[in-house]
Specification:
The chain has 390 residues and is of the alpha/beta class. The protein folds into two domains: 225 residues, 3-Layer(aba) Sandwich (Aspartate Aminotransferase, domain 2); 132 residues, Aspartate Aminotransferase, domain 1, CATH 3.90.1150. The chain is built from 13 helices and twelve strands. The strands form two sheets. It has a seven-stranded mixed beta sheet with strand order 1-7-6-5-4-2-3, sandwiched between helices. Helix 3 packs parallel to helix 9. The structure holds pyridoxal-5'-phosphate.
Length: 390
Amino acid sequence: MRDSTLTVHHPAVAEDEFASLCVATHRASTIVFENAEAYATRGDRDLDSYSYGMHGTPTQRVLEAQITALEGGCKTVILPSGQAAVAVVFLSVLKPGDHVLIAETAYPPVNGLCRDFLSTLGISWSTYPPGSGPEIERFATASTRLIWMESPGSTTMEIEDVPAIVAYARRRGILTGIDNTWATPLLFKPLAHGVDFSMQALTKYPGGHSDILMGSVSVSDPALRKGLRDIMRMLGFHTAPDAISLALRGLETMALRIAHCGRVAGEIATEIAARYPVEVLSPILPDNPGHEIWKRDFAGASGLFSVVLPEAWEERLAIALDGLEIFAIGASWGGTRSLIAPMAISGHRTTPDPRNERIILRLSIGIEDPEDLRTDLRRFFERLARDETS
Ligand SMILES: *Cc1c(COP(=O)(O)O)cnc(C)c1O
């Protein structure tokens, strides 16, 4: 071979005695085939095999298998974001004429997907109020094909009675899916409760370091996985192996991070509720709706909760936020850094509630020293309450 050929042919080296605790990052667009026959029959390969980089490399198969092991289903697909994971679930089961019933408290872009995209394809949608449980029956229609849950709900943190909703859906032959991002399968296992699609934004706790976006969907029925993979192929969804290797790394410390963040968040939420004239929204607090169901179904809490401010404090919110030294202001969550994000929810909610018009602060507790977080929050609330206390 001449030099320019040598520059593109990587010499084979022995790997016999090489063993590492790390998952190798296999990158590929092209997959090469042993012979002409193998290439000609590549379409017969099963969904776990390899034929083109778009459908995954061994790095992705490791993440799929690891999430499947945690979720307890039979297969998992990996998507380039949490929102993409929701979208492929909807697109894989909904056809023109179908209706999808989504939680009013679903991650707001799910509303947008239904309103601005699916409805133009002839797929109708509506929402059900948080905490509906067996009452879900009142909101389904004759053409409901999918019920989409999120528990706890976005920002307002209501817990859903998943077993009750699944029992109704099963009787009617309706599929169910859930956004399990807050709990992760460490704290709640939707598939064990009969949910058909368990979706996570791996962007949050599994990634864990605020540097990647990724999503997953796990199922117990191989036919549903085939439907997801078909949509992913047609729409050309691909997740970069380099990002997947970061998710695999994040996953290794996820149990420790969630245990820590959940404990500290619980302590801080309880202190805030006791000390200030605010409403704290977290399923761990006994006076929150859904607390009993949370105790029944979940193995614990993660580090995200919300605080509804009194109206009189809202005008000082910007100044108080600007004074924060440890908490960063920003969306997304589940990373090592503590975050605070002021949320306005009125545009997404249909069930009247006075707090829909309030600003709701969403706090994500990170892994900084809890005393530094407490000091930062004490100063924050002092600034907000300034007029009343001076
Ligand atoms: C962040 C988030 C998503 C979307 O995930 P992305 O990776 O940011 O697209 C979906 N659901 C919940 C509950 C989330 O917090």
